[in-house]
Design goal:
This protein is of the alpha/beta class. Helices cover 34% and strands 18% of the residues. Helix 1 runs parallel beside helix 3. Iron/sulfur cluster binds next to loops.
Length: 284
């Protein structure tokens, strides 16, 4: 099945509403150092379309009855390949003719080429942006468009009337945990909801991260591996530190009249549904 029930590793901390998940591509070429999906998808950097994608989706889409579909959770729906293949666009065209709501999660400016479709279907676009510093985003997410481009994407989407949220996911101590300027910029752009989550290590993402950020990883190592917690196959920061980071993000967010949600953190800090899907307009 292409459209499957969203169940992030059966995480006891997931507070997302019921929804389906769909990845047009297997793997992802953004190369994010902190990526979790690379730990369970073989040959992850070799981004490729799903086999018989369009014919399978056509069959499955006839059964939709108003579900929210999250696109994507184990890849970005706009890898560089999309520029050439346009498969995500074709999938959106198909889904827009059915009874569903769409939640696009991306780091790519390619989403703006599909604004015409998103204007016709109840939808939200969630743009992940970790920092205002393009040099840092280039190092953290070497294959993805830099932060400034993503902020322009947010502006373009909002100007086109597409409900748009942002994700600072992950928040990494000593690296991007001073969120003030970024949150201010997101608020100035008209973002209605911010979702945040702390960095949860898995062996392969930690290996990549510590190679690129040796000094920061030296400071993080005791926090994760001596004082942190093992939760659902990942190693989390100590609970008190995670709480402080999420509380700070919440305060910055709500001060600017945006709603806040945290992702797989177990804290009762959400002022909007955690994934920001509450911003979807159902009256299209
Ligand atoms: S965009 Fe998402 S799926 Fe792709 S490499 Fe980055 S974290 Fe992984």
């Amino acid at each position: 099945m292409l459209l499957t029930v969203f169940d992030p590793w059966k995480s006891q901390y997931c507070t997302c509403p019921p929804k389906l998940t769909f990845n047009p591509y297997t793997g992802c070429d953004h190369g994010c150092l902190y990526c979790y999906a690379s730990s369970y998808i073989p040959n992850f950097q070799n981004c490729r379309p799903k086999k018989n994608l369009l014919s399978r989706l056509e069959r499955e889409a006839t059964k939709l009855e108003g579900e929210l579909i999250s696109i994507s959770n184990s890849s970005d729906p706009y890898p560089r390949l999309e520029q050439k293949m346009g498969l995500t666009r074709k999938c959106l065209e198909m889904l827009a003719k059915t009874d569903c709501k769409l939640q696009i999660i991306t780091k790519s400016d390619l989403v703006t080429k599909d604004i015409d479709i998103l204007q016709t279907v109840p939808s939200v676009v969630s743009v992940t942006v970790l920092t205002k510093d393009d040099n840092l985003s280039r190092k953290l997410e070497p294959g993805a468009p830099v932060s400034s481009k993503r902020l322009t994407v947010i502006q373009t989407l909002i100007e086109a009337g597409i409900p748009t949220t942002a994700r600072i996911d992950p928040v990494i101590p000593f690296l991007n945990d001073d969120m003030y300027e970024l949150v201010e910029t997101l608020a100035d752009l008209g973002v209605m909801h911010l979702t945040c989550s702390t960095y949860k290590t898995k062996p392969d993402n930690w290996k990549r991260f510590s190679k690129s950020f040796p000094d920061i990883s030296k400071k993080l190592s005791p926090l994760y591996f001596d004082q942190g917690e093992r939760i659902g196959g990942s190693t989390y920061l100590p609970e008190a530190l995670r709480f402080d980071l999420m509380k700070k993000a919440k305060e910055l967010t709500e001060k600017r009249n945006m709603k806040f949600g945290c992702c797989r953190e177990s804290f009762k800090l959400n002022s909007g549904v955690c994934d920001g899907s509450w911003v979807i307009r159902n009256n299209l």
